[in-house]
């Protein structure tokens, strides 16, 4: 009986802790967003975060996208050639990349790169009293550290995904034309005739949501880190893991919302 | 415990019945303290006695569970956000490890509070840079140091930059959290000297928390000792080493035997 009660108590504590964490994260996010609407806005901090998100993440996102496009073309050919449906490869590549792989892979890459760096930087500021110091210098840390990063995530990731979309399709094009013998004109025509504006727009909307989630998890975990170097390390790990899982979870939700028939 | 302020003298900072607990741990247990304008008060006490939490409560970085904190007769705990921000602009703080912003050059660290000011007090970057150079000179650093990053400075230089940042906006109140921790005795004396000079030049009211008795007697006019979240002694800083209070005597002379027992964590 005692062990059953103990189990129930543990489940209860775990549930309460989860609900408390979700509430705290939601309030943190809303607080951060509210500072985008209230001056002052720290443009220098925004541009620094934007450069970190967009410019410095470009190589890793570009390489991931181009190789993913190449792999999809190759795998699709292997499967579709059994049914004489090779002509659908261009359609499959462009839809996969624009609707899913572009936003998701860019999101996961940026979560690993920028989310981790953000959590580490803000976490270090927390454990070395730099965040408290901001408060003593007439500067709201949410306004200076969090709001510019959230906006940078929302704006930068869609731009990265535009690049990822183009390079992903290019990867499929290269494999299809050079290795599989497709005509370049036919491949491009197939791609352009199949993809719709809505596919691209929804992919970019997903990217904006992922960008927000990545920045939010980086800021939230860094902001609440405790206990020196170990705490900062734990915050960094949590930021990347949580951002990656939430990216995939939101991907499902948004796909269900926009594409499920 | 707190002797009442002299008749007619309004304390710059007046604290009454301040309580703060973290979970089961009671950190501040009914602090009453008056800090008179233009004085330097040193708060001593062992690790975990509540000194830093007291300072953070006054600064608004930690919200107390109960009690009042008045600055110039106005309760800061009942202020709205704008009023609290305006009050904080009167306060400068030197953190224990300087807490300089790694991502900014030294001059921008020093001028950070000036650049953050709004409205009619807003100044441009060129003017802020010139003011930062002036303040760096005031704390004994060459203005060329302004172009360096905090990571390129020694511990003593970081403290000086932290002091420059604290005084740059000419605050009415200055807080010093362990100003000489981690410094050699000579550098500690240099920092203390700079603190005394800055407080005198600005005419500020200062509160310093420290373990360093030499520093306490150099910086302070008044002194107080915290033990287990309570104020157990208050008097002149000059009398710290012969206060006649057994707790203060044990602490200032570093004796193992005495009323202060080593607390073991359970």
From TrEMBL, chain A:
Could be part of an ABC transporter complex. This is ABC transporter permease. Belongs to the MlaE permease family. It is a multi-pass membrane protein. The lineage of its organism: Bacteria, Pseudomonadati, Pseudomonadota, Alphaproteobacteria, Acetobacterales. Keywords: Cell inner membrane, Cell membrane, Membrane, Transmembrane, Transmembrane helix, Transport. PANTHER family: ABC TRANSPORTER PERMEASE PROTEIN-RELATED (PTHR30188), PROTEIN TRIGALACTOSYLDIACYLGLYCEROL 1, CHLOROPLASTIC (PTHR30188:SF4). The chain crosses the membrane at residues 53-74, 150-180, 200-220, 232-254. NCBIfam families: MlaE family lipid ABC transporter permease subunit. It holds the Pfam family MlaE. It comes from Rhizosaccharibacter radicis. It is found in: Cell inner membrane; Membrane.
UniProtKB/TrEMBL annotation, chain B:
InterPro entries: AAA+_ATPase (IPR003593), ABC_transporter-like_ATP-bd (IPR003439), ABC_transporter-like_CS (IPR017871), P-loop_NTPase (IPR027417). Pfam families: ABC_tran. PROSITE patterns: ABC_TRANSPORTER_1, ABC_TRANSPORTER_2. Residues 13-253 form the ABC transporter domain. Keywords: ATP-binding, Nucleotide-binding, Transport. The keyword Magnesium does not apply. The keyword Transcription does not apply. It comes from the Bacteria. GO terms for molecular function: ATP binding. Transmembrane segments: none annotated. PANTHER family: PROTEIN TRIGALACTOSYLDIACYLGLYCEROL 3, CHLOROPLASTIC. This is ATP-binding cassette domain-containing protein. It comes from Rhizosaccharibacter radicis.
């Amino acid at each position: 009986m005692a062990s059953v009660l103990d189990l129930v108590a543990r489940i209860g504590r775990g549930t309460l802790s989860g609900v408390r964490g979700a509430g705290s994260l939601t309030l943190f996010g809303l607080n951060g967003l509210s500072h985008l609407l209230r001056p002052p806005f720290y443009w220098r901090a925004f541009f620094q975060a934007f450069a970190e998100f967009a410019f410095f993440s470009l190589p890793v996102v570009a390489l991931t996208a181009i190789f993913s496009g190449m792999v999809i073309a190759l795998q699709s050919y292997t499967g579709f050639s059994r049914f004489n449906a090779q002509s659908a490869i261009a359609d499959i590549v462009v839809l996969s990349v624009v609707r899913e792989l572009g936003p998701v892979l860019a999101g996961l890459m940026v979560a690993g790169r920028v989310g981790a760096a953000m959590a580490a930087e803000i976490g270090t500021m927390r454990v070395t009293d730099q965040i408290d110091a901001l408060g003593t210098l007439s500067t709201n840390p949410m306004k200076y550290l969090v709001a510019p990063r959230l906006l940078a995530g929302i704006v930068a990731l869609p731009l990265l995904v535009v690049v990822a979309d183009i390079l992903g399709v290019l990867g499929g094009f290269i494999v299809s034309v050079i290795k599989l013998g497709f005509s370049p004109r036919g491949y491009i025509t197939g791609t352009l005739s199949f993809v719709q504006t809505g596919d691209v727009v929804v992919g970019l909307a997903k990217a904006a949501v992922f960008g927000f989630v990545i920045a939010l998890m980086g800021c939230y975990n860094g902001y609440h880190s405790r206990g020196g170097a170990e705490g900062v390390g734990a915050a960094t790990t949590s930021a990347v893991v949580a951002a990656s899982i939430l990216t995939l979870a939101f991907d499902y939700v948004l796909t269900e919302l926009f594409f499920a028939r | 415990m707190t002797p009442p302020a002299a008749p007619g003298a309004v304390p710059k900072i007046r604290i009454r019945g301040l309580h703060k607990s973290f979970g089961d741990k009671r950190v501040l247990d009914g602090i009453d303290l008056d800090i008179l304008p233009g004085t330097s008060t040193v708060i001593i006490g062992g690790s975990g006695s509540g000194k830093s939490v007291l300072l953070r409560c006054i600064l608004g970085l930690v919200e107390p569970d109960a009690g009042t904190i008045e600055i110039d007769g106005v309760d800061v705990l009942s202020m709205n956000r704008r009023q609290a921000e305006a009050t904080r602009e009167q306060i400068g703080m030197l953190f224990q490890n300087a807490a300089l912003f790694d991502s900014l050059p030294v001059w921008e660290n020093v001028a950070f509070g000036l650049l953050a000011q709004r409205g009619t007090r807003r100044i441009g970057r060129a003017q802020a840079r010139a003011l930062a150079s002036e303040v760096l000179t005031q704390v004994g650093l060459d203005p060329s140091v302004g172009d360096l990053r905090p990571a390129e400075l020694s511990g003593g230089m970081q403290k000086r930059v932290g002091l420059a940042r604290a005084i740059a906006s000419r605050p009415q109140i200055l807080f010093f959290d362990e100003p000489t921790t981690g410094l050699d005795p000579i550098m500690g004396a240099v920092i203390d000297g700079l603190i005394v000079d800055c407080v005198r030049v600005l005419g500020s009211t200062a509160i310093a928390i420290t373990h360093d008795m030499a520093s306490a007697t150099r910086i302070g006019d008044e002194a107080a000792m915290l033990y287990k979240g309570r104020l157990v002694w208050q008097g002149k800083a000059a009398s710290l080493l012969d206060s006649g209070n057994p707790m203060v005597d044990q602490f200032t002379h570093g004796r193992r035997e005495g009323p202060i027992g080593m607390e073991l964590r359970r």
